[in-house]
Amino acid sequence: MDGLKVEIKPGIYWIGVNDRVKDLFEGIWPLPRGISYNSYLVIDEKVAVIDGVEEGFSQEWYENIERLIDPSKIDYVISNHMEPDHSGSLPFIRRMVPEATIVLSEKAREMLNDFYGIRENVQTVGDGDEISLGERTLRFHEIPYVHWPETMVTYLMEEKVLFSGDAFGTYGALDGGFFDDQVDVDYYIDEMLRYYANIIGMYSIPVQNALSKLGGLSMDVIAPAHGPIWRQDIGRVIGLYDRWSHWEGEKGVALIYGSMYGNTIEAMEAVGRGVISGGCPTLRIYDVSRTSFSILLQECWHWKGVILGAPTYDTGIFIPMDNLLSSLHHKRLKNRICGLFGSFTWSGGAMRKMRGIVDELKWEVVEPEVPFKSHATEEHLEQLEALGRAVAERVMQD
Ligand code: FEO
Questions:
Q1: Which residue intervals define the domain Flavodoxin-like in the entry (predicted)?
Q2: What pLDDT is attached to residue 324?
Q3: Does 337 lie in the same domain as 288?
Q4: Any residues with Cβ below 6 Å from ligand 1, and which?
Q5: pLDDT band at 1 (very low <50, low <70, confident <90, very high)
Q6: Do 264 and 228 have their domain in common?
């Protein structure tokens, strides 16, 4: 790093911005520590900008470019992905540098028109197409549905740099460091999983396809569109994407409960004791009503065991638990070992409906399922502990 310049390799720079104002990404996902919109500049005989930023940061982004080069020298603006957190600045750069050609996939061309009415000086590229910048060459690889249909990545062949778009991206602004070896990497890995579970996870099969397709590329650097640039341990993040896209959970249990009057809390405590006595030391307990479902999705993606307990409400599933199960169903999380328990007073119904959803996800449901009426008896508490123990033993043997 030289002053405000962030050089990745000679002539390749980060020119992104930090958004520390937005509190909900996509209007859904909490951003307790912001997010970065990464953009990159490659200076060769020709000059390319790779990805943009959200519209409101266009001026700051442009000033980052001005620090490095006269923007009128930009030949290409590559758009790997048309979601507006990256494409929102395209109208700005088109006004400022009308000669620069916008390069994108065929599917993105229509989106560029639909979002911004831009039709002129646009070049579409397909799988394997290349653009020479002089000494160095950009090659494009389509990775459809990671996580929109038009998505592609850009590979700078001679430097072995993969500009990966949202793939390998994380929540969290870049707090003073830009590379994985400069930052608290475990924090960003946690946020990479939350980002994956929230945004990418539903497209896990396209992710597997993309990993297969890109597996033959030699990479020194992965430069994603959010979060730190990976250069120290690229194998680690590729390995994590491989595991997450195959729905491989770590050995641990997420125990998620909802309770109105404390009866399900008492039951949950017995389940928790069972998990520990069953030999699984990693137990994370969450109140479904008081925990963002962004984090609950992350934790369900994280751990092999998921135990859910909730009362019946309006003859159905306790509403916050219903919302979580609906999100898990929507995200198509697979391959979990599951336990179920819950209370009812004048009408059952929640357990059967919860079971129906996890069956559709093809989760393995461990016995005993434990419904109880109003208040858990000593016998119920023993069954609940046995449930926790059984899930733990199954998780640890898997
Ligand atoms: Fe970072 Fe799918 O946009």
A1: 253-392
A2: 98
A3: yes
A4: 81, 83, 85-86, 147, 166, 225-226
A5: very low
A6: no
